[in-house]
Amino acid sequence: MTQQGTIKKLLPDGMAEIEVTRRSACxxxxxxxxxxxxxxxxxxxxxxxxxxxxxxxxxxxxxxxTGKVLGMAVLVYVLPIVLFFVGYALGAALFTGGAxxxxxxxxxxxxxxxxxxxxxxxxxxxxQVPYEITKRL
Length: 137
Description:
The chain is an alpha+beta fold. It is built from two helices and five strands; from the N terminus they run E-E-E-E-H-H-E. A five-stranded antiparallel β-sheet has the order 3-2-1-4-5. Helix 1 (66-94) packs antiparallel against helix 2. It starts with a strand and ends with a strand.
């Protein structure tokens, strides 16, 4: 996965913080589609290895290790949803009434979100970032 971005800050240990404008997957031909309602872009900040030795303000090309990026997406998006349904089923089976299922689902959903946040912070603290700057533009 490759994207373009602008270096906003140089970090220790050969890392950089990059501003990436993430575009929607529709191709941005809004005149033909009109389906997105104008929600076309989102600005993200990612940390990447600065192998190109680029400086602040430079436009760069960054590449992501697809396996790690997809794994993180599963952790952030899929795991909390799965835990919600597991918690709902356990709560409904152990206690009579829908409220217990909803509470159990909510608790496990929050645990899934907190687990994803913990894992993300741990990866960042260990310097395990799935992105690297491959060249200057």
